[in-house]
Each structure stands twice: as C-alpha cells, then as structure tokens.
Amino acid sequence: MSSKPTGSALVTPKWVKSRLQVSTVLDASWYMPAEKRNPYTDYEQKRIPGARYFDIDGPGLCDTSSSLPHMLPAPEDFAAKVSELGVTNDKPVVVYAQSGFVGAARAWWMFRLHGKRDSYLLDGGLKEWENQGLPVDTSPPPAKVTAASGGTFIPQMDKDLVRNMQDMLRQIEGRKGVIIDARSKGRFDGTSPEPRPGLLSGHMPSAFNLPSSVLVESGRMKSRADLQEAFQKAGVDIDAITGPVSLTCGSGVTAAVLCVALHELGITSAVYDGSWSEYGATKTNPVTA
C-alpha cells in the first residue's frame, strides 16, 4: 500500500550537476505524433554529460506485444533494460526531457511504480540546464551497455500506483475517489476528434478535466500554490480528497505529469496505463460527452 509521498520529485540543474558522478541520468524525451520529431535524434545531438536514452516505446520499457501504445512491460523486462542503462537500487536516478516533462514524467512514474523511490525529475529539462549555462555533450552517444557492464536493478512493484480498465470501471460504478483526465478540453468534452481513429468521444463519468499543460509554465512545474489552485479550478479540492485518485489521458503519458503535480502536493495517485486508447476503444464502456 502506497504511503503519502514525502519530499519533492523535482530537482534543479545545480542539484543534478553536483551529483552527476553518483547518479544515473536518463533522457526520456517523447513527442506527440503530430509534432513529427524524433526524440532520439535530439538526444544524439545534445544531452547532459553521461546521460543515456530512456525510450518509453522501446523494448524492455514497454510491452511491444500490445496493440496499445507504450503499455507497461513485465517487471523483469523493465529491470533488465534499466540495468543496461546503469540503474541500480542504491544510486539515484534523474530523468529529464529536452523541454518540460512529457515522457520524463512517465519515466519517473515507471521508476516509482517499480519501487525506485530515489528517482527525480529535472525541473525544466535540458532547456533549463542550458539556460543555467551548464555544459552539454554533443559527441556521439555512449555505446549501449550490457547488463553485465551496467547496473543491477531489482524491482519492488507498488501496484497501488497503476490502474487497469477494470479498476476504472469499478471506481466509476462505486463513485469513490477522484478521476482526473489530462487531455485537452475539446477531447474531454467530445467536441474535438481523438487523434487515434475509432475511439469513443467524451470522458469517463464523474471525471474532472485538467490538461497537463495547465500545470507547467515555461517548461517548469508551477509552484505548489499555483498547482493547488489549478486543481481547485478544475473542481478538485486537494484538501478534501478521499478514496483513490486515478489519472487518465490519451495513452498514459501526460497523466504522469498530473501524477508529479499531485506528488508535489502530497497526494498519492495512480496512472491508468491504457488510458483513453484502451477505454475509448471499448464501445460498451460508459462515456459522458
């Protein structure tokens, strides 16, 4: 059972720089398909010195056998892959994106889900690192490592941090806790088309809408006071939450940004891994538009 989170997940460029030699640093950048950008190409061009690339769509870091995008891999596959990236149980992990949090927030959540409590997010990403005048590595990326030459990570799953579709249906039927949807207002309301064809339009009954972009300003997470205000405006009273807090989005990526924000406010939440890509593909599921 997850306890109330303590300590901030966010770290500054100065904090990361002072711990480069004793931490594993990972570039977990990811872009929406419409952006038509390759995050690995960006990683190749420049990165924090020593950083390796965490591909949320790559083997070992997602279930490549699933028809749904970037679904969680088996714990043993995750452990083997991050061990190749140099992750161990006794060394902190810092994840970042080229800018902001998309991709990196999901990677952070995946580490928390697998029991890696000393995992952190670089607030503002690589852009903020550069804004602070810190050096970037533009040489060819380091060669891929094997598990033997990398680290050894043993997962300890915290299943309270993830939801599946049956969990969501039970929560909807039981009217317990809070469901928050990180998609845009148009998609939530059903007035804008879903980017993936064939999905239902609208949202889960009783869900609140808080687009993840509202929580970020200039690539950095807003202050705790501003985060609490954003949730309040969305209809979620942080101080009055009882029961489970479940987060959803299009495919389980931007919901993790909400997970980070709630962590900063001392609230434990869970990400619905399949999110609307799964829920909206099941025509019999209850939907409100």
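Above is the first protein from milestone M3; the second protein from the same milestone is given next.
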Amino acid sequence: MNYELCYCEDLLNDLYEGVYFVDKDRGITFWNRGAERITGFTAGEMLGRFCYDNLLSHVDEHGKQLCFDGCPLHETLRDGKPRASQVYLHHKLGHRVRVDIKIRPLFVDGEVIGATEVFSSAEFTDCSETGLKEMERLALYDQLTQLPNRRYIDTYLENQIRDYQTLGIDFGVLMLDLDLFKDINDTYGHNIGDSVLKMVADTFQGSMRKNDFIGRWGGEEFVAALRGVNQAELETIAKKVCKLVEQSSLKRAGGDIRVTVSIGATMIRPTDNAYTLIHRADSALYTSKREGRNRVTVL
C-alpha cells in the first residue's frame, strides 16, 4: 500500500498541472510540484494550511474575492458536484496568474471526504522560443519586465494601423501608468520599485486576452493594443486590468506593497497615425489621473 501511495505521488508530481487535495475541512493534504511552479508556494508552505487561509486569494475577472464568497472548492465539498472555472490566483511574488481549474469530489462509502483541484496556467506567449531569442537579439524587449519595448511597440502599432487601413480591422489602444510610483521608489528604493514594475507587468499579461499586445513604453508607462474590439469591449478589458492590478500586492517583511494603475483608452480612427493615436490615449490617461487615479477614461 505504501508503495502504491508513493507511486501515485510520483505520478502526480510529474504532471505539468498543479494538483492539490483537501480534506472535508478544506485542510491541504497534498501539493504537487506543478502547484509549486505555478503559484511559487512550496509544499512545505502549504501542507497543513487551509485553503481559506487565503494565501492564493482567488479572485474572478471582476476582482471579487472568491475565498470568502463563491469558492468553487467549498461548493463542491458541500454538494459533491464537480466544477470548472477560470480564476486569478495570487502568486507568491505578488502578481496575478490566470488559471483554469477543475475540481472533483472525493467519496468514501458515498460520503464526501475531500476534494482535489487541478489547475493549469492560462498564460500564453505569442512567440516561439526561436522567435523570442531572435527578438531579444534585436533588442526589442525590455530587460526588466521582458515585455516589448518602445521600439517594438512603435513597429507593432504601425502594422496595426496598416491592417486597419487596408483590411478594416479595428483595434483599440490603452495607455497605462502606475499611480504614485515615485512614492514607492522614494519610500522603498529602486530595487523594490523594479519588483513592483515586474509584478504589474506580469498582472497585465495575465489579465489580457491571448492575442492582445502589451509593452513597456518607458518608466512606469505601458501601452497595450487590442485587436478586433469595439469601444465597449475595450473599456471592459481596461476596467478588468485596473481591478486586477488593485488586487495584486508585493509581499515583504514590513507589509504588503500595493499599487494602482490609471488607464487612458481610445479606438483607432480613419485619420489616425501612430502619433495621434498615442497622443489621444495619453490625454485620456491624464484625465484619469486628474479625476482621482485608479480608473479608466475613454476618448
């Protein structure tokens, strides 16, 4: 029997997906290596804890805290029904990770004695490994955030404008700026400031759609281009990004560091070039700043 248990654990630890088991009281009894990789939390940190300790702090796309209201794992323990969902977990390093989860109840003699959750990262990369290395060689990526840099953004926007003019493919642009970022640098130092930038960049990537583009414009400013959206969809996605950044935090001994983002949004227009498009998004951004920060303005 011990051999069989060890064999099962080895199989589960070889999975790319994260897997963990809970008992009927939601105590965590197993945490595989896939779960360690996706969340940053080791088995030693998680075993014996309870999922309602809120280390992963699951939220939905609207920023709703699921551990306190609407937890799918708790519902499965209650009614014995399997569930599947997409949520955003809180990585140990502070950023949000989009994951697809599947929950199954565990029965003994017809009674629910626990549950298992299998989750996989829904993050993506648009470039193959070979293409990524080539772009890095051409210095098209920001070294801190690993996002496309300004040079790459300029080229990408020109291509999208050309597609809009020749093929009629609409797209929208977001200009995103971290609120009061200078205060973070002044208070905690530039190393912590860099960690906050990386955390936010990772949250941006995890909160957007597969084909959306996000790059670092410079300093604490970022630019995103969303292909094939209308204005309402652009605003909805921007508000989701705003909420998920607000729900992220960088954990440190002296207390969590939180940050918000202001966003300016605009759709491509027939007379636009890259300059007018960015200028209008930038104007919308500063309207968000003037009106209190941590919000979205559409022009």
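Note on the second protein: The radius of gyration is 21 Å.
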